[in-house]
């Protein structure tokens, strides 16, 4: 009998695991289950809409979904519609690849003011994630934005807000977000980093792009860059990345006199300590100098987007709570046949291809384990269909997803974009059923 495997989470680490599985076990029947109606996780809902090159990996995932042994089972939430125990009874192996989706919090006064939003929600909103269709984070009177964090997500958020409608013309930004951003007349975006310029997590290409914006001038303070170098003790790739960042920031520092009147400031050594508002709406961000915490300043901020990483706690209903923490090799303790991979296992670090190696290493563990157990009579996909039908759960399967995909790409063609995303639960479910 062929093996049956369920992958929970249809994002990059889930699909990279499927890629390894179809090579190692070509006969295995694989269901890739996601609570969302559309596959590809971070590729669809996390990668910036103007970075279509990064989304090209989706084509590789599409080829996997085209295989007769692989099914997408969307609109099914593990923990709500089916339990881990249900799935364990149906499949020979379960791979949890649910990523990290909840925003980490700053934990400072004023965080609940209107106009303060986490990057998970904000990025989801501009990427057409159905959970954030009603977020509505922008008001046309907003003039100043503080983006907190010195990672690539902070750069994405700053760039998407700073780009003109023309610059976003070939992107797949959600239509509601494109319209709201186009109504803004921003004067200033501040990128707030609690450490120094040599410690930023940015990668060079992403940072350099901020120097090529049509309407915004990227500005760094020259005095913070004087004599600063990447630490000698860092491994060579890190030293190279930091050295390149410093070169780019020096170019930003020397070009401050240029003509663009909208400003994108880098504020290094600034730790957020409080947010202050008027009538419940955020107006200023109070910062302490990280090296001299008694020195405080306030910067104007009508919108604050925190890009400080994601809470690594697992979604409810998955057996990753205390006591079940995964072994380094991805096996979930106490639950034979259950594995975890990607951001769900190691936290929110690394670019999309980082997950490939992680997922392929896990597949080796799964395949080795399966080789030690005799073939089972578990019914896999057929059993899942019966279970979901009995419970009245409407699945968005590969065919339904392809229908959504076709609608989106066809609408995109008429606008010269890769796709026009459908971004509400209602529309997606309705389309899938039609
Ligand atoms: P990240 O690189 O870990 O950056 C998080 C930033 O938040 C850090 O600068 C961190 O500062 C700061 N931070 C954390 N807690 C804070 C606090 N309480 N107050 C102020 N600052 C705080 O995370 P990310 O930007 O979310 O990115 C996640 C991963 O996705 C990264 O590996 C990233 O490279 C990747 N990614 C890649 C791309 C791309 O390739 N284009 C795009 C987006 C994301 P400290 O360093 O001081 O802790």
In round numbers, the mean pLDDT is: 94
How far apart are the first and last residues' alpha carbons, in Å? 35 Å
* Strand segment count: 17
Q: What structural class do you assign from the helix and strand content?
A: alpha/beta
| Estimated helix fraction | 25-40%
Helix count, DSSP H or I runs of 4 or more residues? 14
Query: For the CA atoms, what is the radius of gyration?
Result: 23 Å
- Distinct ligands, ions and cofactors found in the model: NADP nicotinamide-adenine-dinucleotide phosphate
Query: What shape does the CA trace take?
Result: globular
Q: In terms of per-residue confidence, which ranges show pLDDT below 50 for 5 or more consecutive residues? A: none
Which percent band covers the strand fraction?
Answer: 15-25%
Notes on the structure:
It is a single chain. The protein is α/β, with parallel strands linked by helices and 434 residues long. Helix content is 33%, strand content 19%. The chain contains 14 helices and 17 strands. It has helices at 12-24, 41-45, 57-65, 84-90, 119-126, 152-162, 175-182, 204-209, 236-254, 343-346, 354-371, 381-390, 398-415, 425-433, and strands at residues 4-8, 29-33, 70-74, 93-96, 102-103, 116-118, 144-148, 188-192, 216-219, 262-267, 270-278, 281-289, 292-300, 303-306, 310-311, 338-340, 396-397. The strands form four sheets. The chain has a six-stranded mixed sheet with strand order 16-4-1-2-3-17, with helices on both faces. A hairpin with a 2-residue loop joins strand 12 (281-289) and strand 13 (292-300). The protein is globular and about 70 Å long. The two termini are 35 Å apart. The relative contact order is 0.18. The mean pLDDT is 94. It binds NADP nicotinamide-adenine-dinucleotide phosphate. NADP nicotinamide-adenine-dinucleotide phosphate binds at residues 106, 148-154, 156, 193-195, 201, 203, 206, 272, 307-309, 348-351.
């Amino acid at each position: 009998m062929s093996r049956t495997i369920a992958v929970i989470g249809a994002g990059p680490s889930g699909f990279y695991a499927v890629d390894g599985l179809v090579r190692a076990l070509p006969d295995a029947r694989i269901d890739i289950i996601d609570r969302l109606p559309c596959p590809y996780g971070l590729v669809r809902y996390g990668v910036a809409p103007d970075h279509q090159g990064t989304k090209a990996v989706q084509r590789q995932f599409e080829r996997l979904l085209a295989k007769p042994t692989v099914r997408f089972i969307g609109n099914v939430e593990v923990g709500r519609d089916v339990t881990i125990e249900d799935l364990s009874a149906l499949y020979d192996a379960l791979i949890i690849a649910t990523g990290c989706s909840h925003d980490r919090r700053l934990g400072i006064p004023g965080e609940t003011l209107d106009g303060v939003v986490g990057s998970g929600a904000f990025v989801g909103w501009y990427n057409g994630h159905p959970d954030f269709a009603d977020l509505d984070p922008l008001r046309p009177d907003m003039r100043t934005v503080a983006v907190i964090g010195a990672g690539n997500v902070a750069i994405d958020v700053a760039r998407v807000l700073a780009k003109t409608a023309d610059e976003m013309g070939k992107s797949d930004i959600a239509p509601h977000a494109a319209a709201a951003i186009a109504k803004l007349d921003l004067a200033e975006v501040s990128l707030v980093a609690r450490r120094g310029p040599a410690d930023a997590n940015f990668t060079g290409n992403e940072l350099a792009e901020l120097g090529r914006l049509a309407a915004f001038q990227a500005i760094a303070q020259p005095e913070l860059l004087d004599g600063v170098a990447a630490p000698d003790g860092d491994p060579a790739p890190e030293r190279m990345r930091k050295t390149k960042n410093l070169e780019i920031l020096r170019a930003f520092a020397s070009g401050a006199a240029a003509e663009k009147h909208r400003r994108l400031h880098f504020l290094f050594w600034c730790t957020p300590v409080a947010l202050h508002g008027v009538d419940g709406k955020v107006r200023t961000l109070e910062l302490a100098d990280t090296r001299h915490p008694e020195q405080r300043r306030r910067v104007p901020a009508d919108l604050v987007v925190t890009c400080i990483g994601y809470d690594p706690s697992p979604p409810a209903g998955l057996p990753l709570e205390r006591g079940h923490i995964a072994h380094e090799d991805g096996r979930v303790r106490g639950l034979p046949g259950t594995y975890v991979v990607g951001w769900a296992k190691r936290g929110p670090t690394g670019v999309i291809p980082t997950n490939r190696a992680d997922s392929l290493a896990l597949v080796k563990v799964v395949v080795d384990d399966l080789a030690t157990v005799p073939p089972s009579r578990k019914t896999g996909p057929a059993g899942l269909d019966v279970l979901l039908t009995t419970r009245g759960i409407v699945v968005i399967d590969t065919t339904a997803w392809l229908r959504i995909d076709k609608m989106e790409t066809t609408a995109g063609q008429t606008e010269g974009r890769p796709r026009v995303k459908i971004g509400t639960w209602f529309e997606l479910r309705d389309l899938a059923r039609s």
